Amino acid sequence: MTSSWEELLPTTRRALLYRIAVAQSEGRTPSFVGAVLRDGRLVWTGARTCIDGHAPDADTQYRIGSITKTFTAVLVMRLRDEGLLDLSDPLEKHLPGTGVGEVTIAQLLGHSAGLSAESPAPWWERTPGTLRPELADVLGDKARMHPPGRRHHYSNPGYTLLGSLVEAVRGVPWEQALQTEILDPLGLARTSAQPRAPHAGGWAVHPWADVMLPEPVEDLGLMAPAGQLWSTAADLCRFAWFLAEGDDRVLSAASVREMRTPSVPAEAGDWNSTYGLGMQIVRNEERTLVGHSGSLPGFLAGLWTSVDDGVAAVALTNVTSGPLASTVAADLVRIVTDAEPRMPAPWRPLPDVDQELLDLTGPWYWGTYAYGLRLVGDRGVELEPLRGGGRRSRFVAGSEGEWMGLDGYFAGETLTVVRREDGSVSHLDLGSFVFTREPYEQGDAVPGGVDEDGWRGL
């Protein structure tokens, strides 16, 4: 049964339509399409156009530019999960002869390989890919701009290399791998390397007059993995949900979570934006959004997901410059999440009680810092400061008496229950940090010991 709160309120729907109407009008674009997905369900689509009675819909294809990179990154992560490569491998191990030296696959995914932003002239986005038949033509003579791993420097040729890596390891063209490994399993029937009707045409609008010029549509050849794809608002919303939840037919939830994790430091002065593995990560009004923007001559696109809110939005338009599709997509997410916050899941008790685990809950002390240990589902625990600042982390159960940190300062660190010879609990060890039941209790396993005179007044 559909619950009443799954449908957007009329006021929310009007606010969404108003946002794309403003984008189409002020951005001076022939058409604009938006869509919103909530908790895996497409809950709104809208469009504005300059032609009365001929508006596109969520099934109309637009070119999505660099959102293509996220699809390519998923293909690379699949190879990693199958054990066919490691992200720390130098690219040359699997694709020799490129001349990029020690650059790793992870650095290419996160744009920290130090490669040039663009291929040599003529501009690859507005010329046929046949002008660059070999990787050497894409990279040119000055492909290396920065030391690998030192800084984020967006690189379109870097994703050309990743597409060629997929082809080398899989033994099939990038487009074929994309179709069989992502598009078919996720049901993205309206996403393709070449346009399929109905699709929008790309236009340039004169900066000083309300007149238009058609933009050429080029097959990008070797550069296709960096920006070739066409898609629809509906297909991209489904893809956005996959990027939030994962799908074992394509990539596990753990692997897409890894893609959403920052892989490089933010640039100085740009503390609200960084990059994961094939995904942009931004902070927007205290909300974390993951996804990607895209552009090619004649088209602009934006896809953002707020994983915590369960809301994703897509914005597509067919103009070279004007409306900021990525900004509009973020605004669509904000409109829904602000007007209709996500309903919390009902509280439910755990299915069973493990008395030994239950005995571990409650207050623990790291020195004089008070922490609380809480038992959660699947035998996991949470450790959080009880007052003031401190390091909060979640832990997933591992072997008996051990948990692995999932986030924060203790991500990847092991929390261990240390027992005395009689089997009673002595303390918790977290990456050498000792947590005891009392602060600096005599006889406890406190590093450095406890003054034998104990606590005292002035």
Looking at this protein, list some descriptive labels.
single chain; 458 residues; alpha+beta; seven-stranded antiparallel sheet
Structure description:
- The longest helix has 17 residues, at about 10-25.
- The protein is globular.
- The protein is an alpha+beta fold.
- It has helices at about 10-25, 70-80, 90-95, 105-110, 135-140, 155-170, 175-185, 225, 235-245, 255-260, 325-340, 355-360, and strands spanning about 30-40, 40-50, 60-65, 205, 210-215, 230, 275, 280-285, 285-295, 300-305, 310-315, 360-365, 370-375, 380-385, 395, 400-405, 415-420, 425-430, 435.
- The model has no long low-confidence stretch (mean pLDDT about 95).
- Strand 15 (about 395) and strand 16 form a beta hairpin.
- Strands 12-13-14-15-16-17-18-19 form an 8-stranded antiparallel β-sheet. A 7-stranded antiparallel β-sheet has the order 2-1-11-10-9-8-7, with helices on both faces.
